[in-house]
Design brief:
- Helix content is 14%, strand content 32%.
- It has a domain of 52 residues.
- Strands 1, 2, 3 and 4 form a four-stranded antiparallel beta sheet that branches.
- It is built from one helix and four strands; from the N terminus they run ββββα.
- By secondary structure, it is an alpha+beta fold.
């Protein structure tokens, strides 16, 4: 397995794949996500595609790197939107 390194300071103290919480409270599934409305002109059913975002955090300098869990799914939704 490759060792993760911080792109800012070069440290190997990386905390990988942390879920980003949208709000604090009693809700369990309030994770930050990104979405594409594949049919944005529709009045009701806009065919929204969502993907969760996770973060890698450097334990040395605090730099945060974000990534989408399923980039292929997000890309496919984007292409579908462009072709509609």
């Amino acid at each position: 397995m490759d060792t993760l390194k911080c792109t800012r300071c070069g440290s190997e103290k990386i905390i990988p794949n942390i879920r980003i919480v949208d709000r604090f409270g009693d809700f369990e599934d309030d994770y930050l996500a990104i979405e594409i409305k594949q049919n944005p002109k529709a009045l009701i059913f806009k065919d929204t595609h969502r993907e969760l975002i996770s973060a890698d955090v450097c334990g040395e300098c605090g730099y945060v790197s974000l990534s989408v869990d399923n980039p292929k799914g997000l890309w496919d939704a984007y292409v579908k939107k462009q072709n509609s």
